[in-house]
Amino acid sequence: MKDLLLKLELRRNGATAADADAMARIATSIGHDVPGLSSEAKKRIADEIGFVSRKQFVTAPRLVFASVAVLFMVLVLLAQSSKPGQILYGLKRGSDQVRVIVQPGFKQTDLQERRAAEQVKVGDDSKQKTSGSAKNDDKDTTGSVQKRFDDLRRSTSGDSGRDRD
Question: Which tens digit of pLDDT belongs to each residue from 87-109?
Fold first, then answer.
């Protein structure tokens, strides 16, 4: 296969078919006669030309960088479900702005509609929490007022000796 590729390359560069065949045979015979290098010689040559082995390629700074990148991507994914007022909401807004720039089909108006819907949802959630706690507060207040009223009536009726209803 190598001979064929070499012959084609020689032909493209102007050699005749006979010359290309002869040169391919010579190259093949030379290739078999090349002595191998010892592992020490290979290492010395690699050091001289600045070759980096696979073992050296994965170093601590690269692992740290990869870990930080993965952590950032996880945070961006988690931020997509955050609501206004939460810690990751700023990251969500930032990632949405990047999305507007990078994704042609995603428009600024879509983003504004999403923000408005989030604000409405947060407002509804806070109203439900507030109205629920207000109802509980009303019950607590009504109960405590009723208790005080009963205590006052008992203390008054106990002082005068008669029941005032």
Answer: 998 898 888 888 888 888 877 77
pLDDT of residue 149: 62
Tell which residue, 24, 19, 22, 18, has the closest CA to residue 5.
Answer: 24
Sequential DSSP letters for 97-138: HHHHHH-TT--HHHHHHHHHHHHHHHHHHHHHHHHHHHHHHH
Helix ranges (H only) for 34-88 are 39-49, 54-57, 60-79
Structure tokens at 10: 């020689």
User: For 109-123, what is each residue's pLDDT tens digit?
Assistant: 777 787 788 777 777
Residue 20 confidence (pLDDT): 85
Q: What pLDDT score was predicted for residue 129?
A: 61
Tallying the residues shown for the chain, one arrives at: 165
Region at 107 (left for phi over 0; alpha for psi -120 to 50; beta for the rest): beta
Structure tokens at 62: 């690269």
119: CB partners within 8 A, 6+ apart? 84
Token digits for 151? 């205590």
Rounded distance between C-alpha atoms, residue 34 and residue 45, angstroms: 17
76 close to 95: Cβ distance less than 8 angstroms: yes
